[in-house]
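Lab notebook: predicted structure, single chain.

Context: the supervisor wants predicted structures on file for every construct in the current expression panel, including those that have not yet been purified. This is the next one on the list. No modifications to the sequence; it matches the entry in the shared construct table.
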Amino acid sequence: MAPPFAVLALGGGFRARRFFVPISRGGAADAAAAIAAATGEPDGHERLLLLFADTYNVEPEPLFLRLAELLPGVPVVGGGASEDGSVGEVSVFAGDASSSHAVAG
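Prediction complete. Output recorded below exactly as produced.
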């Protein structure tokens, strides 16, 4: 059986805004507010949030709950990297910013 995979295909006519938000344990609500502010106000178009996080240091449940409150109806997709457990963090990047303890999109 072939391994599962996913493909994201985007057509023309879309606008993207990238963001990089530092996050710390217990800071999911603040990070969600920063993400919502960085993505801007809805402009009547369909929206999609691509989210990539340091999976060791981001608490997904409170982050997603707060994002759902701040960006109602906006689908969130993305992923996270991992390592063999010897470091306990992974880096994420957006533009020229790169760090662990962060969320980017």
